[in-house]
Amino acid sequence: LETGYPVYGANGKIGFFNKYNHEDPALMITCRGATCGEIHISEPYAYINGNAMCLDNIPKLMNIKYLFYYLKSFNFSFVISGSAQPQITQSGLKAIDIPIPPVNEQNRIVDKIETLFSEVDAGIENLTLAKRQLEQYRQSLLKHAFEGKLTAKWREEYAEKHGKSLPSADELLEQIQTARQNYYDQQIMDWEQAVEAWEEKGKEEKKSRKPIKPTKPKKLLVLDSSDLPNEWVVVEFEGICELIRNGLSLKPEGHEGTKILRISAVRAFSLNLDDYRYLSSEHEVSSFLLQQGDLLFTRYNGTRRYVGVCALFKSTEDYVYPDKLIRARVDLDEVENSFLAYGLNVGVSRSFIERRIRTTAGQSGISGGDIKKMPVVLCSKQEQDIIVSTLDEKLSETDSIISTLESKILKANLLKTSILHKAFQGKLVPQDPNDPPASELLAQIKAEREAKALAEKQAKQDKAASKSKVKPKSAK
Predict the structure, then answer these.
(1) Can you tell me whether residue 23 is helix, strand or coil?
(2) What is the dihedral of CA 156, 161, 167, 169, to 10 degrees?
(3) How far is CA 262 from the centre of its chain?
(4) pLDDT digits (tens, 9 = 90+) for 256-295
(5) Mind listing the pLDDT tens digit for each residue in 332-345?
(6) Beta strand pairing call for 325-329 and 266-267
């Protein structure tokens, strides 16, 4: 059992080579990090680094694949130490007991394992291929939905069925702008009434705050939509939003209070409302309470593909959101928020976010400003509803099948674990009474090791003797 040590490889780069690992394969085990305990059979002359150990000098009478499969079945958690940096030491590895049956039985066990594994692997390969095809179908469905291809036939038939055409892009923009102005005007009226009430009440309660005047909506910036149907438009997201705001920076604590979502609760197209912690009820969080229909985006994540993804908040329960999430609120009759929740994760919206992601100290992130500038694809409310209805139905079916396939893949891998456990409990292949006893094998292994040790000792003695015969040159 040896750890690797550095040498120069044929390509001139530093590698690690085990001094015993020459022409024969050897067992390699990772001994540090997240992959601690992974086993591999090396190629001859294999290089290893300092995070691996080599189980070399295996007796010729042992089947190396038998040892490989046994160690694959072993629970290395019993010999792994350390939490921040898990590792397996040589002493821990040397303490593992190895059950040794006769050589013929080792060979039968290996043959049976490989036969069964081959069948299981073929099944896993087919299941994985089906899962991959469904995932590609899912991506294509979403892509086509926000390129206008999914509802192309529906648009062609709309005028014939309804006796009128869909709104043009200019008409759609005018509808949105009118809706935004009407919404703002209503906010102003509500604010003026609130100010009047405050002024009357303020004479008695001097500490009460004057209501904040609503912010006039930003100019609706229209972006390039030349690749989309004539009835579709692309606008800057900020132009249709009532607000875009980062979350709370308070530290969660305790086991009761106000629910605050974790950043991991938000994934593209889905929001896990069971993924939360608590804030103490003493904190004022009313302005951060989520409303049904709010859109949540991830600001930061260690994994780039989770940055800037969007999910729709559909609950009526009280939840707040942390500072690593961004909330956007769109309250327009002409825009279906479920449509936005799909579209903001794909196409031009997602491409824009991916270009804006910045990575610092291992954390990738975007800003609220990036969310504001994000392009968003819009079409008529009628078409939005058709797209959402179609996606809800088809993606639900697809996700259900994918989940079933994942479950079957998991069971197939567990079956491999079960096969290994049976193999090393002596239940996988029948024993042959004609096989020599294991004690005879152990005696042969012991003899082999003693002979090798004697040969190495003799080689050292011969080398020392040859050096002593070389006379040193006399000094002049």
Answers:
(1) coil
(2) -10
(3) 16
(4) 889 999 999 999 999 999 999 999 877 788 889 999 999 9
(5) 989 999 999 999 99
(6) unpaired
**Residues 6+ away with beta carbon under 8 Å from 86:** 32, 33, 34, 36, 80
Q: Output the pLDDT for position 437.
A: 83
d(CA 156, CA 165): 9
Q: What distance in Å separates the CA atoms of residue 415 and residue 413, rounded to the nearest whole number?
A: 5
Separation of CA 182 from chain center: 43
* pLDDT reported for residue 17: 47
Q: Supply the pLDDT for residue 22.
A: 53
8 A C-beta contact, residue 260 and residue 322: yes
Q: Amino acid identity of 420?
A: L
Q: Which residues of 191-219 are buried (b: 16+ CB within 10 A; e: fewer)?
A: eeeeeeeeeeeeeeeeeeeeeeebeebee
Is 394 in contact with 141 (CB distance < 8 Å)?
yes
Whether 465 has a pLDDT exceeding 50, the answer reads: yes
Segment holding 447, helix H or strand E:
helix 438-469
Three-state secondary structure call for residue 177: helix
Grade residue 18 by pLDDT with cuts at 50, 70 and 90: very low
* Of 425, 428, 426, 421, the residue nearest 75 (C-alpha): 421
Burial class (CB in 10 A: 0-12, 13-18, 19+), 75: exposed
